[in-house]
Amino acid sequence: MHTENKTNTVSLSVSTWVFMVFFMLSPICAAKKMDVLFIAIDDMNDWTTVFDKNNPIQTPNLERLAARGAFFEKAYCASASCNPSRTATLTGLRPSTSGVYNNPDPWAEMLPEVITLPQAFKHNGYAAIGAGKIFTHGKAGIEQKDNPSFDAFYKLQPAGKSKLHADKPHMNYNGYPGRKRFFDWGEHDTDKQADEHTVEYVNEVMASHPREKPLFLAAGIYRPHMPFFAPPRTFEKYPFNTLRMPPMPENDLADVPPLGVEMARISLDGWNYVSQKPDDHPGSLKKMVQSYQAASDFADEMVGRLLDQLDKTGRAENTIIVLWSDHGYHLGDKTSCGKTTLWEKANHVPFIIVAPGITQPGTRIDTPVSLVDIYPTLLDLAGLPAKPDLDGQSLVPLLKDPQAKWERPALMTEGRGNHAVRSRDWRYIRYKDGTEELYDCKTDDPWNHTNLLAGEDKDNYTAVVAEHKKWLPETEAPERGPLHKSMNKKR
């Protein structure tokens, strides 16, 4: 009798204790939703040390961040233009779904019912705050007036002027007056660059935001976007006389279909402008490449300031960090100086996720993924309701197991009907007129110099082409932005 009562008493005490612990911890866990630090970098390509220590552009802070979590070695933008790429990332919809194909397309006007990534967090109890360049700048980046994505947003500040190119007499850029403002580079002589204003604002939010309110905090770093401005101390890391230049074989576009060459027209114009000048000219290709490297280095410095502040505030252990670049950049390779192509250097981007309790420090994942996967991944990591209408899929299985099965390659689009499919070993491109390119990306041709479908042995790759072609979109949204309307009027 005594023993039985003792047993019952112990059982009751344990049950009561378990219930009380659950009752006490449940609201605490609910109050401790993971914060999100969402870092977007503009125009940073893959020629950085976070990809390979032998690359020339030094990114120690991206390396430092990657060491905390998972670095995706083969991450690709949805489109190599600012607005289509950012719209795809922030809505989870590829250009072929949304119809946002071009930089001038007003995404909010074209997609009035869409729920953006920051809004998804707002709808689930988060404060959404941002600064800098998150959506594209200018008219195309204007949000819905009555339904903003952010509770508070600090706009991107003016870029200022460079010391060397303040008057820009040599930067007329082939008579394109609208581009002269941006087609510039050199040492910056102002007290603060635009990104420093952005980072100061974001760091203040990190320091002052109440812990009881979960936070989605976005920092949009504008560099290395043109104009390629950076402080003198940054240029010192990339001496002009020993500067590394990309490989630039002659006649690199000889095996590219006409539509591929036409797609690169703006980039080719940039090449034509800078390549005609001697190296010591301030508007030369070599000076442009040096300035891009310095501006990328400066962007990495801004990431370091954000990480320092996050650690200082003690929020890091409860913060999911996502860093990505909207697209890459050609620096003379492929006879191009810019983006808007379907080749590797315009599409391959740095992408890092740090998710406490999920990612293992120093993980490197070589599965090809897309930036449209960010939206569903963050919902999954934060424990928020999934959205089945998104084009991407959660990367959490890869974060938990980098060897997990992943069937889908990355898909890129540059204008309606033009697509690239990037698998682990190949880049397949098909243009809207049916012409094609195929590049071996294993080790043989990372710079996409040799189109295998232009050679005599192209029939050897029939199976490879067929495997990649099946991933092209079956249907595509019509072009309906202002650029498309303007072109129709001209016709």
List the helices and strands and how they pair.
Blueprint: H1 2-31, E1 35-41, H2 60-66, E2 70-72, E3 75-76, H3 82-91, H4 95-98, H5 107-110, H6 117-122, E4 127-132, E5 152-155, H7 177-180, E6 185-187, H8 194-208, E7 215-221, E8 228-230, H9 232-235, H10 258-263, H11 265-275, H12 285-313, E9 319-325, E10 330-331, E11 337-338, H13 344-347, E12 348-349, E13 351-354, E14 363-365, E15 369-370, H14 374-382, H15 396-400, E16 410-413, E17 419-422, E18 426-430, E19 436-440, H16 462-469, H17 482-490
Parallel strand pairs: 1-7, 1-9, 2-14, 3-15, 4-5, 4-7, 6-8
Antiparallel strand pairs: 2-13, 3-12, 9-13, 10-11, 16-17, 17-18, 18-19
Helix pairs in contact: 2-12, 8-12
In short:
This protein is an alpha/beta fold and 491 residues long. It is 34% helix and 15% strand. The chain has a single domain (33-409), classed as 3-Layer(aba) Sandwich (Alkaline Phosphatase, subunit A).
Question: How much helix, percentage-wise, in residues?
Answer: 25-40%
Mean pLDDT: 89
Determine Rg (CA atoms, Å). Answer: 24 Å
Number of H/I helices: 17
What is the total domain count?
1
The structure class reads: alpha/beta
Low-confidence stretches: 1-31, 173-178, 486-491
Strand content: 15-25%
